[in-house]
Design a protein that fits this description.
It contains 16 helices and 12 strands. It is an alpha+beta fold. Helix 13 packs across helix 14 (407-420).
């Protein structure tokens, strides 16, 4: 028989503690305020994102502070999460809380109650006294939910998660995947960003826990997720950093001739959405000649990622020091506009990609070469060569925006479209001309969209060339 004592007072060692006052059960069941929040927590201000949540759980009689502080940024422990879940569940269902015990840790009655209810096992034994991960907190807090409650977001979460468009950092390998998804379905959390990321391995703060507790206590506070479920082919939301693979390897002191190390550093930088690389060299190594050679090497390697828009590189260093900071930028527009043009170029490319799929010009049945040919046709039919050689014509942005480009712009736009398709590609340069080298169905192919754009129509002889055929033109 489950043992409970009505509104028993239990002194908790935790900073975040549920109030043991008898009004708590009524507040949870009716949503009516028990107390008036008048700034009792000195570290909670009206402008804080968690203000309303803290105010709600205080007024419902669910939490108190320690010495007038709430400690919103403090990390929630597994024990505190168990207290939250157990008190909410027990107070809502029976108007009572787990019976206090004089032996063992303070949180033992809460853990025991959740175990009796069958919503918690022994999987977290030995872990209650340390900060909980967000996945562990989700596992515990999900125990406060009743099967009778309405999962307001069930269909939205199921569709967004199945399509891989939302909650992408939670997989079948993530601990407590099912409980995490339950919190989304019941409107207890909406995620940390526009893609609903949960950050399962991160710590959960007391402020975040208060927000969840408020939604657990009052159904009208729960979130209704308005996620846009895109077709499976859509690349909406993809960023330029997503197009670059890196295993995270970083070389702090590459020499100009060590191109593989330089490429690894560039890949790491691009995959992190960054524009700077900090290097360190032995004292006396840095001088003008060495840095110039280093910059030339970095510029040559980043040119293989022409779709990233970077065509300029600079270094900040001291001949008496050991560090050099290399910064990537574009000579085509002001430093303050770099990110704007990168984002807008990506938006244009995604729109082209999605439209070609929507119209059926691209299909799953196609080979990589067939898909690449569709993009080759689109580029050639939607762009004309800029014989005036204006600066912006060297960018993929102008090709998408105005249909005007020179070889840099043709290649940047084409490579961006191929990479959105998951096709591996880079560049090949001879003199002042650049074109694409892509791996299509396992075969290296040279593709020149600039030369393919002829006045008489699309010249497909410049599509999927061999290296020998490509170089024979010069």
């Amino acid at each position: 028989m489950k043992s409970r004592q009505r509104f028993a007072a239990l002194a908790l060692a935790a900073v975040l503690a549920f109030s043991p006052l008898s009004a708590g059960a009524e507040a949870v069941s009716t949503g009516a305020p028990v107390y008036i929040y008048e700034g009792q927590f000195s570290d909670v201000s009206a402008g804080d994102w968690y203000y309303e949540a803290v105010k709600t759980v205080y007024e419902l009689g669910l939490v108190r502070g320690n010495g007038g502080r709430f400690d919103p940024e403090g990390e929630l422990t597994g024990a505190e999460a168990a207290a939250m879940a157990a008190r909410l569940r027990s107070l809502r269902e029976t108007g009572s809380e787990p019976e206090p015990r004089t032996d063992g840790p303070w949180y033992l009655p809460y853990v025991a109650y959740l175990q009796e209810e069958g919503v918690l096992g022994r999987e977290l034994e030995g872990a209650y006294d340390r900060p909980a991960t967000r996945a562990e907190a989700a596992h515990i807090l999900a125990g406060a939910l009743s099967a009778e409650e309405d999962p307001v977001n069930q269909e939205t979460v199921a569709a967004g998660y199945a399509a891989g468009q939302y909650i992408r950092d939670v997989t079948g390998e993530t601990p407590y995947e099912e409980d995490i998804l339950r919190l989304y379905s019941w409107g207890i959390t909406g995620g940390a960003d526009e893609r609903g990321s949960f950050l399962p391995e991160a710590r959960i703060s007391r402020a975040e826990a208060a927000a969840m507790a408020a939604r657990l206590a009052r159904e009208e506070l729960r979130l209704t997720l308005e996620w846009e479920i895109l077709p499976p082919y859509s690349r909406k939301g993809t960023e330029l950093k997503d197009l670059v693979e890196s295993d995270g390897t970083f070389y702090a002191s590459p020499l100009p001739e060590e191109r593989e190390k330089i490429r690894a550093d560039i890949c790491r930088m691009l995959s992190r959405g960054e524009r700077r690389i900090s290097l360190e060299y032995p004292v006396g190594s840095l001088n003008g000649e060495f840095v110039d050679a280093l910059l030339e090497a970095f510029l040559t390697e980043v040119r293989d990622y022409v779709e990233q828009t970077y065509n300029n590189v600079s270094a900040l260093y001291s001949v008496r020091g050991i560090s050099a900071v290399i910064t990537f930028s574009s000579s085509l527009y002001d430093e303050s506009l770099v990110e704007k043009y990168r984002e807008e170029t990506m938006d244009y490319a995604i729109a082209v990609h999605d439209r070609l799929w929507e119209t059926g010009e691209l299909t799953e049945a196609m080979t990589e070469q067939e898909k690449a040919r569709v993009y080759f046709t689109w580029i050639c039919e939607n762009c004309r060569y800029d014989h005036t050689l204006q600066d912006m014509s060297h960018s993929g942005y102008r090709l998408f925006d105005e249909g005007i480009a020179v070889c840099d712009g043709y290649t940047a736009a084409y490579n961006l479209l191929l990479k959105l398709e998951g096709i591996s590609c880079g560049t090949y340069t001879v003199g002042d001309h650049i074109w694409t080298v892509a791996v299509l169905d396992g075969r290296p192919c040279h593709i020149d969209t600039t030369w393919g754009d002829q006045e008489g129509g699309v010249a497909y002889r410049y599509f999927a060339m061999t290296e020998q055929d490509s170089l024979a033109r010069f």
